[in-house]
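Try this one yourself first.
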C-alpha cells in the first residue's frame, strides 16, 4: 500500500516539475515585489494537489473490494459504510476506521489555506507597488 502511494507521487513528479516551471515562467510578468509570494502560493497549490493525490490513491486502491480489505486488515466491516467521499477524502470500514490516512485531509486543507493567505499577500504587494509606481510617475 505504501508502495502504491509512493509510486503515484513518483509518477506525478513530472507534472509537478512542469507546474513549477510554469509558475516560474508565469510569475515573471508580475511586479517584482509580488513575485516571491505569488510563486510561493503556486508551489503550495502544487503541494496540496500532490497530498490530495496521495490520499486519492488510498481510495483508488480499494475501489473494488473495500469490504474484503476491511475484513482482512481491520477485522471489521459494517454494512452501510465503504462509500467513497472525495472532499474530505473518506472511505470507512465502520464508524471508527477510515482507509484514508488521518493526516491527508488536514494537510490538504492547511496547504490550501496557506496558499490563499500567501496569494493575498502577493496581491497586496502588487497593489502597493502599482500605487507607488503610479505616484512616482505623476
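Now uncover the answer:
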Amino acid at each position: 500500500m505504501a508502495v502504491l502511494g509512493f509510486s503515484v507521487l513518483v509518477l506525478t513528479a513530472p507534472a509537478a516539475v512542469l507546474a513549477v516551471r510554469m509558475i516560474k515562467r508565469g510569475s515573471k510578468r508580475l511586479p517584482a515585489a509580488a513575485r516571491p509570494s505569488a510563486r510561493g502560493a503556486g508551489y503550495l497549490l502544487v503541494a496540496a494537489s500532490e497530498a490530495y493525490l496521495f490520499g486519492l490513491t488510498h481510495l483508488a486502491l480499494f475501489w473494488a473490494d473495500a469490504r474484503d480489505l476491511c475484513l482482512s486488515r481491520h477485522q471489521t466491516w459494517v454494512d452501510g459504510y465503504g462509500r467513497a467521499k472525495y472532499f474530505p477524502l473518506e472511505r470507512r470500514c465502520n464508524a471508527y476506521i477510515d482507509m484514508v490516512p488521518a493526516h491527508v485531509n488536514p494537510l490538504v486543507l492547511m496547504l490550501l489555506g496557506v496558499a490563499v493567505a500567501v496569494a493575498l499577500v502577493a496581491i497586496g504587494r502588487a497593489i502597493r507597488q502599482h500605487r507607488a509606481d503610479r505616484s512616482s510617475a505623476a
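Discussion: The first strand starts at residue 85 and ends at 86. The mean pLDDT is 85.
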